[in-house]
Amino acid sequence: MELSSLPSLSPIPICYPKPRSSATLPLLPFYDRKAALFGHSLCKKATLRNSYNSAQNNFLHISRTHNGESWCYFNPKGGLSRSYYNNKLHNHKKLSRYMVARSELAGSGIPDASDSLSEIKLSSKVRGVCFYVVTATAAILLIGFMMVAHTFVLLFDRYRRKFQHFIAKLWATATIAPFFKIEFEGLEHLPSQDTPAVYVSNHQSFLDIYTLLTLGRCFKFISKTGIFLFPIVGWAMSMMGLIPLKRTDNRSQLECLKRCMDLIRNGASVFFFPEGTRSKDGKLGDFKKGAFSVAAKTEVPVVPMTLIGTGKIMPAGMEGVINSGSVKVVIHKPIEGSDPEILCQVARNTILDTLKRQS
Question: Whole-structure pTM over 0.70, yes or no?
Fold first, then answer.
């Protein structure tokens, strides 16, 4: 519907309460502070908005509420009306907003932002598919070496399993090399290979495991028992000596901590994500004290690490997507002590400060 098809109308002010502040003014561009007048901008909005339901309602604009202020709109047939269109808007609110956004882009000649977003998502999904093709291919090619050497590993290196971790490092490096680069800072803070320690880090993404494996350290991750059932990946995890855990089972948690202490006493290192799960919003969560209790009881250092960028490349809950970007790993100085509470607080503050500086 074009405004030119209506009877000649003199400029009629639309009823609108006086705004409380200037922050409520720039909601739409076709009214001024005292009155909104029919004009070119209104014509554009009316034409585009009426394309949704003009045959049934024949109204110039869809009612809205913004910042507690109620709008009053003019209907050529029914005069000023509010309640009916408010009810209609309740059912079609999302579609109305979508139409407004697209109409403003079309009127200004700016390319539709949704097209660019779709292209970005498509490229990220394609990269995600390629990522899993590469990681599966590398795993299939390398799992044979693990299986052949596993008997000898159990005989001569039952706890550290250096050879199996070396194969895992090759697999992780081959997987991520085509997609993003890793920058390491503070490598001099790493204990020697033969020095057991408790490593802790923030947890942002599924890519955290790949990133940490490229360090080539023989620390044992703690993983959900269900992942050990996956073909190839689960087999490799078992041969590396990783530690299964049922999160909701208290008995499993105690057995996990006991196994960690047993590994440390036999010269191996363990790795904890003290948050317990991946961060959905990138913010650092609260730390659980299990890792620090193990360190205090076994009298080994805690080595904090900060992972930066993995959550942007593969956000939590979007494991099928690989965005472009880079990753940085900051290795902090080891922390020693006998009080799990203090160890937990110092480690978390160290990682949190680094995340704040990098952001």
Answer: no
